[in-house]
């Protein structure tokens, strides 16, 4: 049996806590137990007091959750831990991850810390915890330190009558409304979205509020919006803008209802993608291009930070059409956000850090990855374009479409998978150079190859951030190029017996 220490530390997933919270799925025993949640939340109280230099009794800590069916059970343990360790606890109820951070900013709340109970788009039986200070989401190293404290923290079980209520989502929604009103500056100040037909797909997560509390208040027609009711079983589709079924659902809703724009959120609304009136999906590279085009006039010549798997076509659009710089960095939303902060701190203007997953953080919005704020920027641009008798699609009409792409996830079948993966990458690069292939530099993650001539496109081999896997992304610019590049990559990977190359051979 796993020790308490190992079990608690194993719940770390980057800068978040995640685990299985419900029984019922074969082969997935409960790992995020009520006891561990209580101890981890108690450790956050102690860690936060030390970080802020405050007494525990001076702390005000907010607690919110998304629509997961284990949320209320875990929330009770978090609230008990906050109270039992001496701090004041505020129950924010159904909320979004970005709203929980903003609860530390708003004058009417000004909490010292916040805990969001969510596991983003993961299956219904999973759950997790995200932690916020005024500096933003917790860093990976800080979470490791905090979990070490949790190992030594006892369970507490006070009564919950001293918990205070906070209707945070109303405060957050009003703030979003004012941002849209200010951004559009329409004659009808109260209803600046009048005349726009917007449909929303919340995937039965926490994003349904955006229809009633934002779009309806601003005069938009929201007919056809779907899956707004919170339901942690996620009966309609996975609430994930990267999921093909989810994107097809919002695409169908836009076309069926003849809407101007469709918005889709993930479970806790820190990610967003969109669909235009003609059914064109604004996700991955297209979302990055759209947000960059919206920001470019205010930040000429600035740097856009993305993750490593973006297309060369995006680079061409950012640099040659928008006259911006493209800084392709590591995957992981905290990685791109921290790189954005670093560049701005040294004087290089970088207004946007954004992943192909839909995580997008703006410097003007506290470097917060906020799907609803991305939607705000998109809505402002759509309303302004409509006033000028233009389509929002015109912003990215010169972004060249991707012809063919593929992602292969190869398992590493050995215990020390990180060391093995590094050896694979080193040898892979050496073999590529020996073949005369172009190795793209700098590369902050994995080995990226570029092909021009008889075969055109690119490939990126990297290690997964957390799992014993090596993803390979391939993009071809013409008929057959993707398959040809994949075959070339398979040849470069010959002989690695602990790397499962079967996905490339199908």
TrEMBL record:
UniProt GO BP: carbohydrate metabolic process
Name of the protein this chain belongs to: Phosphomannomutase
DNA repair recorded as keyword: no
UniProt cofactor(s): Mg(2+)
InterPro entries named among the record's database cross-references: A-D-PHexomutase_a/b/a-I, A-D-PHexomutase_a/b/a-I/II/III, A-D-PHexomutase_a/b/a-II, A-D-PHexomutase_a/b/a-III, Alpha-D-phosphohexomutase_SF, Phosphoglucosamine_mutase
Family per record: Belongs to the phosphohexose mutase family.
GO molecular function list: phosphomannomutase activity
Pfam family, one: PGM_PMM_I
Keywords: Phosphoprotein
Keyword Phosphoprotein among record annotations: yes
Residues of the Alpha-D-phosphohexomutase alpha/beta/alpha domain: 15-151, 189-278, 285-398
PANTHER family: PHOSPHOGLUCOMUTASE (ALPHA-D-GLUCOSE-1,6-BISPHOSPHATE-DEPENDENT), PHOSPHOHEXOSE MUTASE
